[in-house]
Write a structure and sequence with these properties.
1 helix, alpha+beta, Radical SAM domain-containing protein, 69 residues, 14% strand, 17% helix, Radical_SAM_N2
Length: 69
């Protein structure tokens, strides 16, 4: 599981199926702390999913974020 630190970072994968996130129709994030928004931005960027909905099309998953309540 150790990798060369100079190697290209792996894209984020789903926890259960180990599939790349762009393979899903919907990505849902539950945010309970304001600073968690930065983590969502990092995940989307690392997955190659545009941050803005206007920049996404039918090839990209729908991104849903709620406040966890």
């Amino acid at each position: 599981w150790e990798r060369d630190s100079r190697a290209e970072p792996l894209p984020p994968l789903s926890l259960e199926s180990q599939r790349p996130l762009p393979d899903f129709a919907v990505l849902a994030f539950s945010i309970t702390y304001e600073l968690d928004y930065f983590n969502v931005v990092q995940i989307l960027r690392a997955s190659g999913i545009p941050l803005y909905a206007a920049d996404r099309d039918e090839r990209h998953p729908l991104v849903q974020i709620d406040d966890g309540l």
